[in-house]
Specification:
Blueprint: E1 5-7, H1 17-26, E2 30-32, H2 37-49, E3 57-60, E4 66-72, H3 79-85, H4 87-97, E5 106-110, H5 125-130
Parallel strand pairs: 1-2
Antiparallel strand pairs: 3-4, 4-5
Length: about 160
């Protein structure tokens, strides 16, 4: 199966019919360049300079290694909160899901290259239901700070 990719070219972000079809058929939409290199640098700086790293905890991968994770439920007033609230993210999610969205949580995954553990693919909806999300109408927005390849711990 080939992955359908889309490229953000700047300006107002518009979810095209092709993006909607990819989401409906594949369960995801890959949009490259949604954030500029400068914006990604601001995100990375905020993560490295902020209090986030003090809240890191390990998640065992079953092979003796750990992935590192930080999780928070309320978007702050910093750069990460601005990402969660920005029109490109919120508007895009609303257009793909077909209605109003809200922030459930933000998760930062840290996987040191070559030594970090795997974050095993899994289905979240089982526990989301127990947390009051009665339908699986949820969206994950994945923003890679570093290039993700098999050479630096990416699973595929």
């Amino acid at each position: 199966m080939s992955i359908r990719e889309f490229q953000y070219e700047g300006g107002e972000f518009v979810v095209t019919d092709s993006m909607k079809n990819a989401f409906k058929e594949d369960g995801y939409t890959l949009v490259r360049g949604l954030f500029s290199k400068e914006e990604v640098a601001h995100i990375e700086k905020a993560i490295l300079a902020g209090p986030f790293l003090d809240h890191t905890y390990g998640v065992a991968d079953g092979d003796g290694r750990e992935a590192h994770m930080i999780l928070w439920n309320h978007p702050g007033v910093d750069v990460t909160g601005m990402v969660a609230r920005c029109e490109k993210v919120v508007g895009g999610c609303e257009q793909l899901l077909g209605g109003e969205v809200y922030h459930y949580h933000t998760k930062l995954m840290k996987k040191p290259a070559k030594i970090g553990g795997k974050h095993i693919w899994h289905q979240d909806y089982g526990y989301w239901y127990n947390n009051g999300c009665l339908f699986p109408n949820m969206m994950t927005v994945f923003i890679a700070i570093d290039k993700c390849t098999k050479d630096n711990s990416c699973l595929q």
